[in-house]
Amino acid sequence: MNIPDIIIAVDGCSSTGKSTFAKMVAGAFGFLYLDSGAMYRGVTLYAMENGLIAGDGAIDEPGLKAVIDTLDLHFRSIDGATKLFLGERCIEKEIRTLEVSSHVSPVSAIGWVRSFVDDKLHAFSAGGRVIMDGRDIGTTVFPNAELKIFMTADEKVRAQRRLDEMLAKGDNPTFEEVLANLRERDYIDSHREVSPLTQAPDAFVLDNTDMNLHEELVWVQGLIQGRFGILC
Ligand code: DC
Prior knowledge:
Elements: E1 6-12, H1 18-29, E2 32-35, H2 36-49, H3 61-67, E3 73-78, E4 81-86, E5 89-90, H4 98-108, H5 111-124, E6 129-134, H6 137-141, E7 147-152, H7 155-168, H8 175-191, E8 204-207, H9 213-228
Helix pairs in contact: 1-9, 2-4, 2-5, 4-8, 7-8
Bound molecules: 2'-deoxycytidine-5'-monophosphate.
2'-deoxycytidine-5'-monophosphate (DC) is lined by residues 14, 36-37, 40-41, 104-105, 108, 134-137, 185, 189.
């Protein structure tokens, strides 16, 4: 396992703004940003495109297990942004659709899928400074992370943010569809047997219901400066 010099773990429910926050911190403090949810989305997209998820959502687990170790899912840094690739294909856009969102939680609840993703995350977190967001980064993937942040926000505010994001990308779901998907994912993510979403006891809670990005930056600056003496 590669152990980064400093790891900041950012966990929390769906659409709490973890990736926006983590990217901002990465840019401000010179950390590498890794999105662990993208990996689960990548496995889900592969399964969908290869007939391993039926119309009713049933997952062909033996079929997926037989090929999982051959999946060439990896991050590449392009113009300062980290993008997910499946082989030579950038799948960053395809993994963000509502269809992938609606299948990803059951896929991510499978223990051997989690082991596959954890191994990849450890491999990509070479030495240096890394900020990673997900559901179990501070509890399972990097339980000794130097700084753990747990993000939360009001459910309706989260659904509206996700809807705005999808509308901006040209998707056209309703608020109710987005809210239902978000509730379902939160439920599955926090009730699964393997590595459920929970707040690490030593995590700092960031409730950003009424905060803008600048306020989040000011909040985290204090933590990072206090803990690591790094100024942005
Ligand atoms: O953060 P996201 O919405 O892109 O994550 C997609 C799904 O992946 C989410 O429903 C739960 C799962 N996930 C997980 O189980 N563990 C992680 N560390 C990251 C994501």
